[in-house]
Design brief:
With 104 residues, this protein is α/β, with parallel strands linked by helices. Helix content is 14%, strand content 31%. Strand 7 (86-93) and strand 8 (96-101) form a beta hairpin.
């Protein structure tokens, strides 16, 4: 699995996160941490979104979202994304991912 397309919900927009349930097979299990920052994963992912420097984050395993998420709200605003729009999460290398709006 090299990429997954995710349809945004109003909950995603309101809470600055992406539901990664459909993409979990794409991430190493060592990048999935516990419910809070005290139980972060051993491996951090490098996430590129085109709106600034790459983000280093793990996945909050209980919610299946990127733990660091302030950038997600910036990403939504920069691209004027709303519920029903789609974004692509693409693997671009070892522990490296690109998130971008779907163009189709």
């Amino acid at each position: 699995m090299r990429y997954v397309t995710i349809e945004l919900t109003q909950g995603n927009i309101n809470n600055n996160h992406l539901y990664l349930s459909s993409a979990m097979k794409m991430f190493p299990t060592s990048s999935v941490g516990g419910a809070n920052s005290d139980s972060m994963a051993d491996v951090l992912l490098e996430v590129h979104s085109g709106i600034g420097d790459p983000i280093k984050t793990d996945i909050a395993g209980d919610k299946k979202i990127f733990r660091k998420r302030s950038w997600v709200g910036e990403f939504f605003r920069a691209h004027a994304l709303k519920a029903g729009d789609k974004v692509v999460v693409q693997s671009t290398g070892e522990n490296r991912y690109h998130v971008y709006p779907s163009r189709g």
